Amino acid sequence: MSASLAVPSNVLPSVRFRRRMALLVVCCASVAAFLIYLKVDPIEFFRDFHFVSDLIKQMMPPDLRLLWVKHGLWTSLLQTVAMAFFGTLIGSIIAVILALFAAGNTSPSWALRLGVRTLLAVERSTPNIVVLLVLLIAVGIGPFAATLSLCIGTVGMFGKLFADAIEQVDPLPGEALIAAGASRLQVIRYATLPQVAPSVVANVFYAFDVNLRLAVALGIFGGGGIGFELHLAQSVLRYKDMLACVILILVLINVMERIADALRRRLFLQEV
Amino acid sequence: MTWSEFSFERYRRYLPAAAIFIVAVAASAYLSEVSLTDLRRGILKGLSLLTLFFPPDWSACKDMLQPALVTLVICLVATPIGAAFSIVFGLAAARNIAPEWLRLTARTVIAVERGLPEIVILLVLVAAFGLGPFAGVMALAIGSIGMLGKLLADAIEEIDPRVLDAVAAVGATPWQVIRHAVLPEVLPALVANSIFRFEVNVRASVLLGAVGAGGIGYELDAAINQLEYSRATMAVLMILLLVFLSERASDWVRSKVL
């Protein structure tokens, strides 16, 4: 049976198949070359798996007593949430204001528009860590620097998005308001903002989700919060505490996601 | 509308929500130690520091090229590895492919990977394997599995069951169903998501580098710690260039492939 089904040797594989195989081989070869360049051996992960199992042995059981033994821990959990919340809030407000200047239909002048657009583009491509490292020097180590850098990151992430949303609003309501004698600010308040509000609110919730994770990450660099506790536990080799921190971070992110979901559902149900 | 027309009654029902909101804002401002004096001082200090940051130390450009390349290569390796493993996890987490117990396990693993920021994964891996690009590659690959695996599993679950039934009806084994019905449906989406993930990874790897995965992030952190600010500016410029180029490159690949 298998013999009769076998492909005759004089039939060449199709051009598409050959092209795909060539692409696959090139991809695999370049990944292998890159691994050699980095001197990284993926097999090492399995050969040196005893490191992982040693670590797990040292980590078990997670020292969750920390929650009531160590008083600062609740504060640092709340601090992480606070950093993300405050950064998202202020960042979104600034983003909306800048977006009004950056959108073609609401901006007072094209020069301002170009300037704000450039600023947003630069902020968008600067990784948060760069902003944080600079801010740590300027305002000093602590959660405030991380909060500020989350603000700036949020502005960069969503300023352009909001500006594009504002440019896509239906111009007719605004023209009707102008015809009725409304001022420029009144047009923005009663015609532009109501149209972009749903997308802005949805994006703010998304921003909070992103910023919460970033708040953990930035905490590691001296921004405070649970990230800093994790880093501390790791650098003094208290792996039981470290696992407890990891579990707390997981729980925190999950709980905040649930809360944000519930809030979002309420908000959108009310509006519709 | 003038102020005389303003009525308190109209806004009354928003009062509780507004009160909660204001308390939340105040509490979070207190907890994150927001202070306007710090901000003002910080801006003044930042302005005086600007002279230290500029002009960038162009002579350091040569030293930065190699770390930038390392960062880029870390992402180029981690993204395909993550994508390859996400196929396994995606299949295992799809309702229409995997049995229930496997699906629940895979979904849990993916949820944990997605929930943890890469840097937390990195810190755990550093504790096991020590500093270096190896931990960085693994952390980024695991993070990529979290996102790509979830998207892939959702995409597989949305495949029209008639397509799978049709292939199975002509006598295909489960592997043949996967090979000839499932993968062709979801691979284009996987490629598009992987390209997007590559961009995310480039940004993340700068952060990971500063913790000890090596590359340009480490150079930046080291320069700032050694107070060589003009060198740090050069590293920042290099990072911006790297992010910009990776965005351009992934746009180009996307337009070619899709």
Oligomerization state: heterodimer
Secondary-structure class of chain A: mainly alpha
CATH level-3 fold name of the largest domain in chain A: MetI-like fold
CATH class of the largest domain in chain A: Mainly Alpha
Report strand % of chain A: under 5%
Number of helices of chain A: 13
Can you characterise this structure?
The complex is a heterodimer of chains A (272) and B (258). Chain A has 272 residues and is an all-alpha fold. Helix content of chain A is 82%, strand content 0%. Chain A is built from 13 helices and no strands. The termini of chain A are far apart. The model of chain A has no long low-confidence stretch (mean pLDDT 83). In chain B, helix 7 runs antiparallel to helix 9. Chain B starts with 7 loop residues before the first helix and ends with a helix. Chain B has one domain (63-257): Orthogonal Bundle (MetI-like fold). At the A-B interface, helix 2, helix 4, helix 6, helix 8 and helix 9 of A face helix 2, helix 3, helix 4, helix 6 and helix 7 of B.
Write out key terms for the chains shown.
heterodimer; A: 272 residues; mainly alpha; MetI-like fold; 2 domains; 13 helices; B: 258 residues; 11 helices; globular
How do the helices and strands line up, and which of them pair or pack?
The complex is a heterodimer of chains A (272) and B (258).
Chain A: H1 2-5, H2 15-38, H3 43-47, H4 49-59, H5 66-69, H6 72-102, H7 110-125, H8 128-139, H9 143-167, H10 171-179, H11 184-223, H12 226-235, H13 239-271
Helix pairs in contact in A: 6-7, 6-9, 6-11, 6-12, 7-9, 8-9, 8-11, 9-11, 10-11, 11-12, 11-13, 12-13
Chain B: H1 8-11, H2 15-31, H3 36-53, H4 61-92, H5 100-115, H6 118-129, H7 133-157, H8 161-169, H9 174-213, H10 216-225, H11 229-257
Helix pairs in contact in B: 4-7, 4-9, 4-10, 4-11, 5-7, 6-7, 6-9, 7-9, 8-9, 9-10, 9-11, 10-11
